[in-house]
Amino acid sequence: MRPASAADAVNEPRGPILQLAGVTKRFGGLVVLDGLSLTLPRGAMQCILGPNGCGKTTLFNVVTGEFAPDGGEVRLGGRNVAGLSPYRISRLGVARKFQVPGVYPELSVAENIEIPLAAGAGRYGPLSLLGYRPDPVRRDRLLDLCGLAGKAGDKVGEIAHGEKQRLEIAMLVARDAELILLDEPTAGMSGAETSAVASLIRRLRDEEGKSILVIEHDMNFVRQLECPIVVMVRGKIVAEGRYEEVSRDPRVIESYLGKRH
Of 166, 212, 233, 234, which has fewest CB within 10 angstroms of its CB? Predict the structure, then answer.
């Protein structure tokens, strides 16, 4: 039986994993999130598109507790977490990946997986890690998931950029996170690397049952995710649907894709 974890707090079998209702965020006189509402079903994936400055990153910061909203509710598994600290929200099973890989370059690929496995087992800090032995089956499963089983002993500083990105995504899963937030996970990648990351993210949803929100600008990558899309403009959601639907929406064409798309 899997040991109980903080993620169990949002692991209720009923209802969406994330609900934002009328969320507003201001910085002085600037309204960055303007009564935004969004629902992510449990075990689903959505991609958030929008021009620079539309509020996408601020939205992630509100969900993770970096910013407290000025209005509205942020619910994880039905619990209103608006205003909680990032530390507490992380312990509730939320994990975020930034554009730059947050990996340990001097450690091996396998060791990078083992550290968050320990955290997922409820062990935090150096002393609690003493004597801890990670589940080798789970570690090897995650190495296979991110396509790095053949490089388990390699130093992370020596592997390719796209491989680092896939490794960090697998590390979020190793933490036993239920809700995963990915901020432009294919930035700086080749076409082949982008496809590999898209495949990994789809497997997280389909095989691991994770709930995923993705911020992205690469339209080819968005197509490969094969998930619903939310389009933001000036702090509001202006369109929702599959890629084929939103790409034909006049508001999206004008505000984001451009008239020549």
Answer: 234
pLDDT tens figures, 50-60 = 888 899 999 99
Over residues 189-218, the mean pLDDT reads 93
- For 215, list phi and psi in degrees, rounded to 5: -100, 130
The span from the CA of 189 to the CA of 166, in Å, is 11
Distance in angstroms (rounded) separating the CA atoms of residues 175 and 188:
26
Backbone CA torsion sign across 87, 95, 182, 80: negative
Contact between 177 and 210 (Cβ < 8 Å)? yes
Q: How far is CA 193 from the centre of its chain?
A: 18
On whether residue 232 sits in a domain, the answer given is yes
Q: What is the pTM of this model?
A: 0.87
In angstroms, the CA 17 to CA 11 distance is 8
Task: Determine, yes or no, domain membership for 1.
Answer: no
In the chain, the number of structural domains is 1
Q: How far apart are CA 221 and CA 93, in angstroms?
A: 26
